[in-house]
Amino acid sequence: MSKPMVLVAAAALTDVDRRVLIAQRPPGKSMAGLWEFPGGKVEAGETCEQALVRELREELGIEVCLECLAPFTFASHAYEKFHLLMPLFLCAKWEGEVSPREGQTIKWVRASTLRDYPMPPADLPLIPYLRDLLG
Description:
The protein is α+β, with helices and mostly antiparallel strands. The protein is built from two helices and seven strands, in the order ββββαβββα. Strands 4-1-6-5 form a four-stranded mixed beta sheet, covered by helices on one side. Strands 3-2-7 form a three-stranded antiparallel beta sheet, with no helix packed on it.
């Protein structure tokens, strides 16, 4: 029996110190307490980039232009009830101050330390690519 496909767009926001932003899922959400890259589900009629612009505005209060999102890699993971496809975009330019808007904790971390933070299974394969890029 095939599982429904869920498309989620995520961003690796990077700062001038080559750190990447991760967010901890708040209590009450599935996989609460795990760290992830900001982003969210792509809605009907949206491109991945449009969904990411919307999600970053909602979650972090920042404005990102479509041209500032660079496709980087993706994750494909079979969870128990659905299959997740998650393109990851790099983003180093935005307007506004990054601040948590949905009860999540956020943290800027070195790519080399990402494995120190418990993450959902779909996020784990993305870590080596970011480590290679950001050191």
